[in-house]
What we know:
- With 218 residues, the chain is an alpha+beta fold.
- Helix content is 21%, strand content 25%.
- It folds into two domains: 5-78 and 181-212, Alpha-Beta Plaits, CATH 3.30.70; 83-176, Alpha-L RNA-binding motif (Alpha-Beta Plaits, 2-Layer Sandwich), CATH 3.30.70.
- It is built from six helices and eleven strands.
- The model is unreliable at 1-11 (pLDDT under 50).
Amino acid sequence: MGRGPASLLWRSFLTLLLHKPFGVLSQFTREPGSRCGCLADWVDVPSVYAAGRLDADSEGLLILTENGRLQQRLTDPRFGHWRTYWVQVEGVADQGHLAALEQGVVIKGQRTRPARATSLDSSFWCDLPERTPPIRERRTIPTSWLSISLREGRNRQIRRMTAAVGLPTLRLIRRSIDLMDGGPPLSLEGLAPGQWRPVNSAEEERLKALLKTQGARR
């Protein structure tokens, strides 16, 4: 068998889709003294690691792979993969809030890239599993749900963006990651919190195709 990047490009590689629960770090080792769990509590598969991350207090889709080149490709900011989040906020968003989120807000002196933001009605979020532990709601302040899509991943960006427009985030779920290849995004569909599955054959071929465009820029 040949060696080097050309041979590695076409080898089969293990890649999983995980619905990361609340309170779990996006790594396979626990932090000393931390109350948070880690991925090893949920995924008993050697050699994979997260392509990107979610904060411990965020939930949703993580791609786990054993292929280092794929991990780099999915997280390289040059390619700007759209990541879609469902966000429960304190307060009710109006068109002004949505426009501000889409145009970008200033976080630590730097404006965020243009985003996509829409309001979600209950037909989207009514069947979501309850979070454990549940969020804390205030009786006198309503909550609402937004869909926010980003092409960047700064530290705690969604939470800082919604806070900047006066809508503190209560719950944050990453729903999907777009491979930007014209196909459907990889998503949480069919996965309860803590569940994972290997990518199917069609998804694997799409991920392999991404590596052929490793040197391209979007």
